[in-house]
Design a protein that fits this description.
This protein has five helices and 17 strands. With 253 residues, it is an alpha+beta fold. The chain folds into two domains: 107 residues, Probable inorganic polyphosphate/atp-NAD kinase, domain 1 (Rossmann fold), CATH 3.40.50; 133 residues, Tumour Suppressor Smad4. Strand 5 and strand 6 form a beta hairpin. The protein starts with a strand and ends with a helix. Pfam families: NAD_kinase, NAD_kinase_C. Its cofactor is a divalent metal cation.
């Protein structure tokens, strides 16, 4: 069985070198006509590729030419067609961020990993958190807060001491970043269906930016976050090395 493969590569020299070798060996189909898209780079480039190709039918298979490569498979030049035919598919639903800025403008973006709010200046942010229309925290004084999907739970969320979430758990993590008050608040686990609203109090003196998978919006006054189940990102992994196994393994590292 032949496969039409489209290659995409980051600007890193190692990724560009791999692109030249692999496209010469396997051909390089247009993405709109491909059976599968092979992304060469790191996790950041994989996220970019998933966002960019979300309207296409082809799943994305990553090969690591970056640093961490949590969303990537190992890099090998040989046997690629056979690896793609054996690969197992995971489906990821992103978060939808709806951010309102102080000038009244509104910005919508999707995030496969997390939506985060971060202080924009030297002073700590003051945030008010509402879940499903019910006020849950009147004031969180912190460097920021984030809502993470299971796929993103080992990224920024984990660095902020948030929990690792199993794939398929239908749970989101709400995690504080360097909380000052309440100092011992460890965040919350929320159902995937939850609608989280975070309001910025005193945004003039304590400005805050919002970020969805590295796409940033400055001077936000409120951010609404909820899952987007109608959007499905298809990602391929070698057998035995899928996201579920990686998330479990990470907890014993």
């Amino acid at each position: 069985m032949s496969l039409a493969i489209a290659f995409a590569a980051s600007d890193a020299p190692s990724a560009q070198a791999a692109l030249a070798v692999l496209s010469a060996r396997y051909g390089d189909a247009p993405e709109a006509e491909a059976d599968v898209i092979v992304a060469l780079g790191g996790d950041g480039f994989m996220l970019q590729t998933l966002h960019r190709t979300q309207g296409l039918d082809a799943p994305v298979y990553g090969m690591n030419r970056g640093t961490v490569g949590f969303l990537m498979n190992g890099y090998l030049e040989g046997g690629l067609v056979e690896r793609l035919q054996r690969a197992q598919e995971e489906v990821l639903n992103p978060l939808r961020m709806h951010a309102t800025r102080s000038d009244g403008s509104e910005h919508v973006a999707l995030a496969i990993n997390e939506v985060s709010l971060l202080r924009q200046g030297p002073q700590a942010a003051k945030l008010r958190i509402t879940v499903d229309g019910r006020l849950r925290m009147e004031e969180l004084v912190c460097d920021g807060a984030l809502v993470s999907t299971p796929a993103g739970s080992t990224a920024y969320n984990y660095s902020a001491h948030g929990p690792i979430l199993p794939i398929g758990s239908d749970v989101l993590a709400l995690t504080a970043i360097a909380p000052f008050r309440p100092r011992r608040w460890r965040g919350a686990l929320l159902p995937k269906s939850a609608h989280v609203r975070i309001d910025v109090t005193n945004p003039e003196r304590r400005p805050v930016m919002a970020d969805a998978d590295s796409r940033s919006v400055r001077d936000v006054v409120s951010v609404d976050i909820r899952s987007a189940p109608e959007v499905a990102h298809r990602i391929l992994f070698d057998p035995g090395h899928g996201l579920e196994e990686r998330l479990i393994r990470e907890q014993f590292a």
